[in-house]
Structure formats: C-alpha cells, structure tokens
Automatic annotation (TrEMBL):
Protein keywords: Iron, Metal-binding, Oxidoreductase
Lineage: Eukaryota, Viridiplantae, Streptophyta, Embryophyta, Tracheophyta
GO MF terms held by the record: dioxygenase activity; metal ion binding
Sequence ranges assigned to domain Fe2OG dioxygenase in this UniProt record: 97-197
Species, as recorded: Hibiscus syriacus
Family matches, as SUPFAM superfamilies: Clavaminate synthase-like
Protein name: 1-aminocyclopropane-1-carboxylate oxidase-like protein 1-like isoform X1
Family: Belongs to the iron/ascorbate-dependent oxidoreductase family.
Entry-linked InterPro entries: DIOX_N, IPNS-like_FE2OG_OXY, IPNS-like_sf, Oxoglu/Fe-dep_dioxygenase_dom
Length: 248
C-alpha cells in the first residue's frame, strides 16, 4: 500500500481509494443533499448566495467531514511513510487540519465543446479528497496528455496539492487537472481540501528538513503561508501558481 501510494504520488500526483471503510450511504447522502440543494427554487437559493468568504452556507455535513478527517489522517500516515519519514510526521505538522468542504454542481451543457467545468489547475492546498457522482468529467494531465478519471462507485480521488509538493521537496508532484463539461448531468463533486492548521499561517513553510541533504538540496525558499494564501486569492486559476514564486 505504501509503495502504491509512493509511486502514484510521485508519478501521477493522484490516486483513488476504494476500501476506505466509509459507508456508501454517507457518500450517497452527500451527493443527494447537494443535488437537492442546487435544484431548489432559485428565489430560495438567492437568499443564501454570497461571495463573502466570511459567510458560510451551512448544511449538515458534520458526519461527512468526520469521515474525511479520519481518512485524511490515514492517508497522511501512508504518505509520510512513502516519503521515508515516521508515519506521524505529516500529522505532527498538522497537515490534516484546516479542512474545507466545497461542492460543485455542473448542470448538463448543450455545447460542452465550447466550455469547461473547471479550468486546468493544481489544488493549492496540501491534499484534496474528491467525491464524484456517477458522471465523468475529471481529467488529469500526465506527460502532456489528458486522462479521464472515471468515477468508481464508492471511490474517492486523492489529489496531491502544491503545498505537499513543497513539503516533499518535489518528490510528490501536485496534479494538474480540469473538469470538462457534459451533455448529461448534473455532475456533482465534493472536494474536501486539507489546507493545514491556521497556526501554520504565521510560521515559515518549506520542504521538510529531514528530506534535505547535500544530494537533495531544497527546491523552494521558505515562505509564510499567509503570503502564499494572499497570492493565491489575488490571482486566477490559470495564472502563475503561487508556489512558483518560491522555487529555487
Ligand atoms: O469537479 C471536479 O471534478 C474537479 C473540481 C476541482 O478540481 C476543484 O474543486 O479543485
Ligand atoms: Fe482541483
């Protein structure tokens, strides 16, 4: 398992987990909840609409988030081992904290060739766990070619984010991906982003010291996560990714 995680993370920047032990009813209810929420009357949804980051539309996602955190902890143990570190290494720097749950609802598109669901990007955080309903659309870039990541019933996609690429000193590669539009739908996806604990914002962030040696010098300057977040928020997805500012 550790070797599979290592190879997938180094070469592809993503993998899928199926035997995660999360009841399929929890995943199905999450998809159904987002489906129902989005198909409510427009006037009802308008009342909840806001682009203010401080305002949060809250639904009952507590059980789902608990499962994501538990799975995240296990994955961070495997990823630590895959880096040759103690299993608790990534957990001890509070990678698994600061999770943020989002949802996407892509309606059926009459002319999918003219648009995209989400533009090409790598997730800026540490790790993402993505739940998809049964409609394809996610593609990952590998060796300059786009590959479909078809939904697997009960499966969750795990994306390496830019910050894990930095922590691993480029041993793990973040995965460039996009979502294409579809004639059929709706396509529903639920990314859970692990961004690291808020206390990391003020501390220097960079490649894990134990991974650095004369033969493997740091590939990034240390930086403050709060500056990184500010850079991310002030740019758009297709612009220069904020980690590029810190590359050596
Ligand atoms: O909906 C998808 O398949 C991908 C969404 C995504 O990449 C994101 O939210 O970062
Ligand atoms: Fe993404």
């Amino acid at each position: 398992m550790v070797n599979e995680v290592r190879v997938a993370s180094e070469e592809w920047g993503f993998f899928q987990v199926i035997n995660h032990g999360i009841p399929s009813s929890v995943l199905d209810e999450m998809i159904e909840g987002i489906h129902l929420f989005n198909e409510q009357d427009l006037e009802l949804k308008k009342e909840l609409y806001s682009r203010d980051r401080e305002k949060k539309v809250k639904r009952s996602t507590i059980e789902y988030i608990k499962h994501m955190k538990r799975l995240g902890e296990t994955l961070f143990e495997l990823l630590s081992e895959a880096l040759g570190l103690r299993p608790d290494h990534l957990g001890s720097i509070r990678c698994c904290k600061g999770s943020s749950l989002h949802s996407h609802y892509y309606p059926p598109c009459p002319q999918p060739e003219l648009t995209l669901g989400v533009r090409k990007h790598a997730d800026p955080g540490i790790l993402t766990l993505l739940l998809q309903n049964n409609i394809s659309g996610l593609q990952v870039l590998h060796n300059d070619q786009w590959f479909d990541v078809r939904p697997t019933r009960g499966g969750l996609v795990v994306n390496i984010g830019d910050l894990l690429q930095v922590l691993s000193n480029d041993k793990f590669k973040s995965v460039k991906h996009r979502a294409i539009a579809n004639h059929v739908g709706p396509r529903i996806t639920v990314p859970c982003f692990f961004l690291g604990h808020a206390s990391l914002l003020e501390k220097p962030f960079g490649p894990i010291k134990e991974l650095i040696s004369e033969a493997n010098p740091p590939r990034y300057n240390e930086f403050l996560l709060k500056d990184y977040v500010a850079k991310f928020l002030s740019s758009s997805l297709d612009k220069k990714p904020p980690i590029d500012y810190y590359k050596l």
